[in-house]
Each structure stands twice: as C-alpha cells, then as structure tokens.
Model the fold of this input.
Amino acid sequence: MILEPEWLFPFSGMEIGDSFFIPTLRFAEMIYAIDCGAKRAGILVKSFVTHKDGHLGVRAWRVR
Done:
C-alpha cells in the first residue's frame, strides 16, 4: 500500500480562476479531500483527474 503525503491545499491564497495540481493515483480520495477543504475555507472548486509532466493526478480550479 502506497501512503499519500499530508497535503496542504493553498485555498487562502487562491483567486477565482487559480488552480493547483496534486499528483496521486487515489483520485476519488483526493477529490473528496479537496472538496471538504474548500468547503471549510468557504470557497467552491471544481476538481478533475488529469496529467501534468507525465504524472497522473487531480487539478482543482477555484470557481467561486
């Protein structure tokens, strides 16, 4: 079993339209964690499975 590192999401510094990428193979768990963190921060994000520089992961965009 591969353990994920503890991620710190940059919600406090995000403007609408900003995004961040988290490399992971545990897509559903990461999307859930991002959505829960965004809700606690009082913002709305949209998250999608994608790739960057040859790595699979999740990208989250702030939409509100």
In short: The first helix runs from residue 27 to 41. The first strand starts at residue 19 and ends at 23. The chain has a mean pLDDT of 94. Residues 16-62 form one domain.
